[in-house]
Amino acid sequence: MFEIAEGGFLDIDVKIVGPDGRVIYQGERETSGKYTFAAHVTGVYTYCFSNQMSTMTPKVVLFNMDIGEAPKEASEDTDAHHNKLDDMIRELSSTLTGVKHEQEYMQVRDRIHRSINESTNSRVVMWSFFEALVLVAMTLGQVLYLKRFFEVRRVV
């Protein structure tokens, strides 16, 4: 699972290559995605996130990879109680993993929103200072203009 957290148009190229050099998955200009595959070949799998279409804009990528095992076949000598307990443990484990991933996602989103809020706040403060300076300048200009307007000039 991946998602572009910030940067540019929030798009990136994705490629997953197996140990035999075969491309397992390839996507272009994706903002987020979830891909599942079974690793039939032992070796190193390569995940490539490319930002070639907009190299001037850095991007933050949230990336998550879950590695699991295929469910084991139940042997005949185990009873139904043990199978049920194993199923409950697997379900609890997957639920906890999901909660952990959601929490990480929420932390990233919180950081992004905090950055946006701080940026907006600094812009509002700068604009307010600019408006205050313009207001003072206009006030001084009007006072000087009115003073000259009502000034009496005597011709001798």
From TrEMBL:
Domain of life: Eukaryota
SUPFAM superfamilies, sorted: Supernatant protein factor (SPF), C-terminal domain
Gene Ontology CC annotations of this record: endomembrane system; membrane
Record bears the keyword Signal: yes
Compartments (UniProt record): Endomembrane system; Membrane
Membrane-related topology note: Single-pass membrane protein; Single-pass type I membrane protein
Keyword list, A-Z: Developmental protein, Membrane, Signal, Transmembrane, Transmembrane helix
Primary localization class, coarse: membrane
Every GOLD domain range: 1-67
Pfam families the UniProt entry points to: EMP24_GP25L
Recorded family membership: Belongs to the EMP24/GP25L family.
PANTHER family, alphabetized: TRANSMEMBRANE EMP24 DOMAIN-CONTAINING PROTEIN
Protein name stated in the entry: GOLD domain-containing protein
Lineage summary: Eukaryota, Metazoa, Ecdysozoa, Arthropoda, Hexapoda
